[in-house]
Amino acid sequence: MNHLHEPILATNRRHFLRNSSAGIGAMALAALMGESVNAVESTEKNIQSTLPHFAPKAKRVIYLFQSGGPAQHDLFDYKPLLNRMHGENLPEKVRGEQRLTGMSSNQSSLPLAGSKYKFSRHGQSGAWLSELLPYHQKIVDDVCFIRSLHTEAINHDPAITMFQTGSQIAGRPSFGSWLSYGLGSENAQLPAFIVLATSGKSGQPLYSRLWGSGFLDSRYQGVRFRSGKDAVFYLSNPDGVCQSRRRAQLDSIADLNRLQLERELDPEIESRIAQYEMAYRMQTSVPEVTDLSDEPDSTFELYGQDARIPGTFAANCLLARRMAERDVRFVQLYHQGWDQHNNLPKGITAQAKETDQASAALVQDLKQRGMLDDTLVIWGGEFGRTAYCQGVMTANNYGRDHHPRCFTSWIAGGGTKPGITIGKTDDFGYNIEEDPIHVHDFNATLMHLMGIDHERLTFKYQGRRFRLTDVHGEVVKKMLS
Q1: Which phi and psi angles does 247 have, rounded to 5°?
Q2: Terminal Cα distance for the chain, rounded
Q3: Which residues, listed in sequence order, are joined to residue 332 by a DSSP beta bridge?
Q4: What pLDDT score does 395 carry?
Q5: Pairing, β 424-425 against β 432-434
Q6: Which of 82, 99, 133, 155 is nearest to 339 (CA)?
């Protein structure tokens, strides 16, 4: 007998099943994982093939996020009674049982702080504006002011996370990622979701998870552009590497990644291949979009001379317009420094000077180019500020604590109703009296303008279906044109 055949002859049915179970299991697992990869691809194709759910009013979004919480009493929400009662204690009936932050809860009194800035009405709409915003005067009839936003979060990190992802707890996809996932991209040469942050600013930290894709595929996360020579890190070829060599290198890497995909069946590997290809295309498209040398002097007169300085808020607003022209789906701007707990007059004056002209210019520029009709511009922060002073108040100085109960933002273009003010707060700007609009209502309305039913754009993760608006939110019809 051939001794090589002895193990085969000695194998009975039980041995065969026992020894082959791992192989059968591996084959079954591989089949299931293969189905999982195909299911991910199929789901994304099905999602994007059924969207938009209805005719969109807006094709793209530019979100001017003012991190820190702008003080609505000093910018948009005129309160003459608050001015008259300056220095008096906040009435108990106004505050009720509302919680305070740890920064002012131990104060022996909560003295009301009227704004030191003059307010006047502007445009045919008669919108109230502070003297801090002279350039906003030119766009009041193109803007919808919302004075009655509110949220549950009373501290910065959960509040900004709430606005960007629909949850106070980190880990969910950001607004831009949801739109990228649902609507895809209209420009294969640039990312669908781009992030710009004013350089050199301090304040509450900005985390990359604020523009992250959470449990969605990594292809849908925002790509941050920075000021300076290289807008995106590691995009340029190193010295000695030509474009043809880079192309050959990427082809070889793609081949290796496909071998790994066949072996592991992980859909993120396909995303990695796609991101390498996007980076290659961006080597040409990014320098082109970030080069402002072809902009006429009239553009810089409109946006302000700061627009000539890379990384400023003005330069980022101008970049956002250029990206919108190239059909980037979602451009997110962050401007830090609105957290005036003390020394508010000095701080907010500087903030308004940095942002007022460029914010108004963006709306004007889009309008004169015929782009405002299908571009949604949003301006606002994560919450507002208190009517009372935090800390010591003097004749010329005061500060304001966080206030999530009511605050102001504005939106323009993209199917919104221009020249109106929605919502009303009490005489102290402390509570909402008319048309309360929750963060989820706000986001539901923004998605509606993009042609999306916020209840239908979902993603199943860990056994439940998630969406940007969590489990509630209603479209605010008053905001729609």
Answers
A1: -65, -45
A2: 90
A3: 63, 195
A4: 84
A5: antiparallel
A6: 155
Peptide bond into 52 cis (omega under 30): yes
Q: 110 near 90, Cβ under 8 Å?
A: yes
Token pair of 38, please? 């195909």
Asked if 344 contacts 389 with a C-beta cutoff of 8 angstroms, the reply is no
pTM recorded for the entire structure: 0.89
Please tell me the predicted confidence (pLDDT) of residue 229: 80
Structure tokens of 262?
């066949």
Is 59-236+290-479 a CATH 3.40.720 domain? yes
Q: Which position has the token pair 């209603």? A: 474
Residue pLDDT, tens place only, 233-271 = 888 888 888 888 888 888 898 889 899 888 888 888 888
Angle between helices 344-368 and 313-325 (to 10 degrees): 20
CA–CA separation, 15 vs 7, rounded Å? 11
Q: What does the pLDDT read at residue 7? A: 44
Amino acid at 46: N
- Whether 344 contacts 211, CB under 8 Å: no
**Token output for 329:** 């789906």
pLDDT confidence tier of residue 403, bands split at 50, 70 and 90: very high
Q: Is residue 221 within 8 Å of 177, Cβ to Cβ?
A: yes
Segment (H or E) for 381:
none
Closest CA to 107 of 341, 392, 383: 392
Task: Please report which confidence band the pLDDT of residue 447 belongs to, taking 50, 70 and 90 as the band edges.
Answer: very high
pLDDT digits (tens, 9 = 90+) for 145-194: 999 999 999 999 999 999 999 999 999 999 999 999 999 999 999 999 99
Listed in sequence order, the residues at least 6 apart from 470 whose beta carbon sits closer than 8 Å to its beta carbon are 166, 167, 440
Q: What percent of the chain has pLDDT over 70?
A: 90
CA-to-CA distance for 134 and 367, rounded, in angstroms? 19
Residue with tokens 């919808």: 144
Tokens matching residue 481: 């044109």
Contacts of 435 (CB under 8 A, 6+ apart): 148, 422, 423, 424, 476, 478
CA–CA gap between residue 357 and residue 133 (Å, rounded): 8
Tell me if residue 461 falls in helix, strand or coil.
strand
In Å, how far from its chain's centre is CA 99? 27
Domains of the chain, by residue range, sit at: 1-49, 59-236+290-479
pLDDT of residue 244: 86
Write down the residue that tokens 């005719």 correspond to: 55
Q: Residue 278: its pLDDT value, please?
A: 87
Cα(444)–Cα(450) distance, rounded to whole angstroms? 10
Question: CA of 480: how far to CAs of 333, 364, 383, in Å?
Answer: 24, 20, 23
Contact between residue 476 and residue 445 where contact means Cβ atoms under 8 Å apart: yes
CA neighbor of 404 nearest in space, from 380, 379, 378, 377: 380
Distance CA 47, CA 29 (A): 26
CA distance 174 to 364: 28
